[in-house]
Amino acid sequence: MQTPTAEATTGATDLRPNPTHDPNEHLRDPDKGYVALLGWVPNAIDALDKFDRRYVVVAPPWAEEYCSQHQIPYVPWDFERLNDRSMEIAETLRDMGVDVAIPLFEETVEWAGAINSMLLDNPTLYGQSLLLRDKALMKRRAQLGGIRVGIFEEAHERDDVIRFLKRVNQTLLKLDGDPNDPIHLKAFDKAGCLGHRVIRTPDEVDTIPEEEFPVLMESHLDGWEFAVEAWVHNGRVVFLNISEYVTLGYSVFVPASPELEKYRPEITRQIEKLIKTFDIKFGFVHPEYFVTSDGEMYFGEVAYRPPGFKVFELLERTYGFNAYQGLVLAFDPKTTEDEIAAFFPREVVDAKGHAGCFGVYPRRRVVSTLEIPEATEDHEYFESHELTAPVEETVTKRTAFGTHWGLVYFFGDDAYEMRSVLRDQEDRDFYV
Fold it and tell me: Average pLDDT in the 41-60 region?
């Protein structure tokens, strides 16, 4: 079985058990699982430091000094490149007594699948991780499970994109002179909006760099796009959040508005169908769906790791539970049903309000100063931001959906006011 591997920048001697002492070892429950966090997420580490599970962070070598200074249990590993040392990290974690590996980033999902295949003695987990990484494979698996998806194909060169664009619009009975329905291009294995392009004309295909191929091509779905965060334990959903996108790539809030929450029974049914189709028995899934005007649900994609846009932090703001600790409960094979019942709140009814965030991207080509708009700071829902002063004055042209420069956070009682305030941010300059 081929597994994700790494041409580690460190030698084998660097893969050492318990390289740093855990100062809170006395708070850990030896009868519960010992977990490995794959990737570097400070909020996740902080959450585990305050939790009752033993843990170790598996992160690149640059994290070693920080972990040593702050007494964070740590094992170095380079996730970037592949070679024949694939099982070394799995063997190291097994020898340390680790029970399960938890992926924190898209790039570590395959690693978790390979490691857990050994730790849990279940070879199918690696194959499952491939399905959850490759957008084309996951859509085919969804189709086999009877889940609705749009039209999709793989493109290896620009001509494939042009043919697909023409074929989709021919299928939609477009006449000469009619504007094309757009198609969407996505990287096979990148997270979120990275590499996501919208193509409307053959001329736009020329803007796609050669290095982005191969890509997944999808037809456009007219509908309301939203995301779901679902914690799974023993093959059942134990907590399900619906995240409402205000503008894709810019803003999100939780829990969703009553207008979207009315679909919760059908959304729950779709998630149950999804975890059955992908044979998910434990852990966490983050799928995206579309609901059309007639109430039909279409599957977009699914990830097996925490969402972006700090949704875990938004959930803690409104519900009070730590989503990273919930992640550990869902992955830990030693978690009991009683623990699950005691940990997770009731969806929607236990929410104290709506928490949202807006991803800022400069609207000007040249900027020199960070300046929070008065209308933003003065709004009663505004709470905080994590924006920093610009390092360079020239703003790199945004390709596809691009990457935001930081988040602005809001909290309030009314979902529709939250939607409005998040949309208002799109017309404001934070960098001038």
Answer: 96
CA pair distance 400, 209, nearest whole angstrom:
12
Residue 107 has pLDDT above 80, yes or no: yes
Q: Which residues contact 419 (CB under 8 A, 6 or more apart)?
A: 244, 246, 253, 257
Quote the pLDDT of residue 2: 41
CA-derived radius of gyration, the chain = 22
Residues 38, 102: contact at Cβ < 8 Å? yes
The candidate with the shortest Cα–Cα distance to 105, out of 37, 34, 50, 3, is 37
Q: SS3 for 137?
A: helix
pTM score: 0.87
Number of H helices, E strands in the chain: 15, 16
Neighbours of 184 (CB within 10 A): 19
- pLDDT for 194-211, tens place per residue? 567 888 899 999 888 888
Task: State whether residue 184 is helix, strand or coil.
Answer: strand
Alpha helices in 34-121 (DSSP H): 42-49, 64-69, 88-96, 109-119
Percent of the chain residues topping a pLDDT of 70: 91
370 or 17, greater pLDDT: 370
CA atoms within 13 Å, Cβ hemisphere of 91: 7
Q: How many Cα atoms sit within 13 Å of 291 on the Cβ side?
A: 16
Report the distance separating Cα 131 and Cα 136, nearest Å: 8
Half-sphere exposure (CA, 13 Å, Cβ side) for 108?
25
The token pair that represents 352 in the structure block: 């104290």
DSSP 317-344: HHH-S-HHHHHHHHH-TT--HHHHHHHS
Which residues are paired to 253 by β-bridges? 244, 356
